[in-house]
Write a structure and sequence with these properties.
- The radius of gyration is 15 Å and the shape is globular.
- Helices cover 8% and strands 63% of the residues.
- With 131 residues, it is mainly beta.
- The chain starts with a strand and ends with a strand.
- It contains 1 helix and 9 strands.
Length: 131
């Protein structure tokens, strides 16, 4: 295992930058270890997979977790607004960093992670293989 850490700045897209970092650093099997920071544009897919929550206000990143594979990422995130109200869901493109965001990723050398279409769920689901 190897740990990676990087910082995002104002105007960057959280999900797109995680995907970009993984590609540039050849992370084909990894996990989001932690992420702290804030966004001023929020876009998450809610439970059920059909509805999105979009908003242009200040949010703190409360929690992020997910798997990173050669075929894409699957990340869930929670954000809190200025009143402390928290909302979470599937991280989508369009979560734009406000001032800063610090991301830590763990790269696994033990596993190969990929995604394959699953007819039952109609999503590309995680496939885990040993290296």
């Amino acid at each position: 295992m190897k740990t990676h850490a990087f910082r995002l700045t104002k105007g960057q897209d959280l999900k797109q930058e995680i995907v970009k970092y993984c590609k540039e650093n050849h992370i084909y099997a990894g996990y989001v270890a932690c992420c702290v920071g804030c966004v001023d544009e929020l876009n998450i897919r809610l439970a059920g997979g059909e509805l999105f929550f979009k908003d242009k206000n200040d949010y703190e990143i409360v929690s992020i977790t997910g798997t990173l594979s050669k075929d894409g990422v699957h990340i869930h995130a929670s954000f809190s607004d200025i009143t402390g109200k928290t909302i979470g869901g599937h991280l989508s493109d369009g979560c734009i960093i406000n001032t800063t965001c610090e991301v830590s990723i763990i790269k696994s050398d033990k596993y190969r992670l990929s995604r394959e279409y699953d007819e039952e769920t109609c999503y590309k689901e995680l496939v885990i293989e040993m290296n």
